[in-house]
Design goal:
5-stranded antiparallel beta sheet
């Protein structure tokens, strides 16, 4: 007999700064509220990758998290009135600051604390 144990499938990363690319920006709805889920492919342990997600509100004001992410991806400030198509961000490099969080059931999970622009000198070194 074979006994199978279910896992979350998530690779727990050590807290730190990782190279990543934007792979998806999805619109989700829960409890009547619409929000975005940003998915990043994060490189760790040489050439291994895992996906990490970060929800944000739909707000795109100067202090919003979504705007901070877009500005990190574009490596520039977004101009007032500028419209950004999230599809144009897919595949672009960033750095993500990973910490540990806990789900409501107590299970540890990766948590994106911040998304940072890729330093110009590091751009050519990205494997993606």
């Amino acid at each position: 007999m074979v006994v199978l144990s279910a896992t979350s499938g998530e690779i727990l990363l050590k807290p730190g700064i990782y190279s990543a690319i934007v792979t998806e920006v999805a619109v989700k709805e829960r409890d009547g509220r619409t929000f975005l889920v940003w998915t990043f492919e994060v490189k760790y342990a040489g050439s291994k990758t895992t996906r990490v997600r970060r929800p944000t509100s739909m707000s795109f004001g100067p202090k919003s998290t979504a705007r901070a992410i877009v500005e990190a991806v574009l490596r520039r400030k977004v101009r007032d009135g500028e419209q950004i198509d999230t599809d144009d961000l897919l595949g672009l490099p960033v750095q993500v600051v990973i910490a540990r969080g806990a789900r409501p059931d107590g299970e540890e999970t990766n948590r994106i604390e911040a998304v940072l622009p890729v330093p110009v000198e590091d751009e050519d070194d990205l494997p993606f």
